[in-house]
UniProtKB/TrEMBL annotation:
This is Protein HflK. Residues 1-41 are annotated as: Disordered. Residues 1-10, 19-36 have a biased composition (Gly residues). It comes from Eilatimonas milleporae. GO terms for cellular component: membrane. It comes from the Bacteria.
């Protein structure tokens, strides 16, 4: 109903009368009421007249304005979610649904509201140090209470690392975590202390850093999934892993000694790998030579025994012939390397006994 000026008539005062005001003197909002300020009533009356002039249709014009306001109000519930974003719809502050990329509509405010946030941006949580902006650029501030950790061999190691993560489910992220960055930091520090406490300081500082990063990423993601945090761990990156500054020099001496020990061990292993095969080869060669000598000696002995037995059998069959053959073979062996002159008994009867026939034979051979 359009507002009508009270104008001293008998219409009820919409701001209440003075008897109902507890010390405000019958004033309306702001300490002024229509009955207390005639100028205000005049302002209301002129505003009504201007509104009637702007709406020539009278009551129908008012309904048209109300319809236009309703359309605008309903249209305020249209919202867009970009491909790199996610959205959630709240009904009187309660999460009712999630919105994928695209064009959506929800009941306008104050019934429902929509929250849209990017979910592909990577967020970095630093543990063990903090990067701060300064006049000269970025400045790193250490957090020793986070970075100092106890290893499995009861040494202290100084580890500074980052956890890079992004939002995977906006609804869980907003309503299941009160402080996401603090939660990620607490979980990451706890997991890293557990992994470092299972290993010795030397691998933690040198060779095991990559494996620790992978194990930490898996464990942190598993814990956050149990929390239904809506967070996806991208990577865990160890920026620094070394002995504390107070004992760094002593630890470097220990590392050098361990490196020398490993070098000597490698040299000994190399010498062993070189000498042992050579010794085994020589031993095998000697064994084969001994076996060959044994086989040769046994075969020769067996051959001579067989020959003796065959000669003996022939001797038993014809003793005179065998004896003569043995005699001839023996003389052949004896005389084979000697100078020999054979004289026929009949032709050599006139030879001077002292004539050096062998010297004459050598001279005749040399003259030829």
């Amino acid at each position: 109903m359009p507002w009508q000026s009270n104008g001293g008539g008998d219409r009820p005062n919409p701001w209440g009368d003075g008897s109902r005001s507890g010390g405000s003197g019958g004033r309306g909002p702001g300490g002024r009421g229509p009955g207390g300020d005639p100028q205000f009533d005049e302002f209301i009356r002129k505003s009504q007249e201007q509104l009637r002039k702007a709406l020539p249709g009278g009551q129908n014009g008012i309904w048209l304005v109300l319809l236009l306001v309703l359309v605008i109000w309903l249209g305020s519930g249209i919202y867009r979610v970009e491909p790199n974003e996610q959205g959630v719809v709240l009904q009187f502050g309660r999460w009712t649904e999630s919105a994928a990329p695209g064009l959506h509509w929800h009941l306008p405010y104050p019934i429902e509201t929509a929250i849209v946030r990017p979910v592909t941006d990577e967020i970095t949580t630093e543990i063990g140090s903090r990067s701060r902006a300064s006049r000269g650029g970025r400045q790193t501030v250490e957090a020793r209470d986070e970075s100092l950790m106890l290893t499995g061999d009861e040494n202290i190691v100084d580890i500074k690392f980052n956890i890079v993560w992004r939002i995977s489910d906006l609804g869980n992220f907003l309503f299941n975590l009160r402080e996401p960055d603090s939660t990620v930091k607490s979980v990451g520090e706890s997991v890293m202390r557990e992994l470092v406490g299972k290993d010795r300081i030397t691998p933690v500082i040198t060779t095991a850093r990559g494996q620790i990063e992978q194990d930490a990423e898996t464990s942190i993601q598993s814990i956050l999934d149990e929390y239904e945090s809506g967070i996806d761990i991208v990577r865990v990156q160890i920026n620094q892993s070394e002995a504390p500054a107070e004992v760094k020099d002593a630890f470097l001496d220990v590392q050098r000694a361990e490196a020398d020990q490993q070098r000597f061990k490698n040299e000994a292993d190399a010498y062993r790998r070189r000498v042992l095969p050579e010794a085994r080869g020589n031993a095998q060669r000697l064994i084969q030579q001994a076996e060959a000598y044994r086989a040769e000696t046994v075969a020769r002995a067996e051959g001579e025994a067989a020959r003796f037995i065959s000669v003996y059998n022939e001797y038993q069959a014809a003793k005179d012939v065998t004896r003569q053959r043995i005699y001839l073979e023996t003389m052949e062996q004896i005389l084979s390397g000697m100078d020999k002159i054979i004289l026929d008994g009949q032709a050599g009867g006139g030879v001077v006994p002292y004539l050096p026939l062998n010297e004459l034979q050598k001279r005749s051979q040399g003259g030829e």
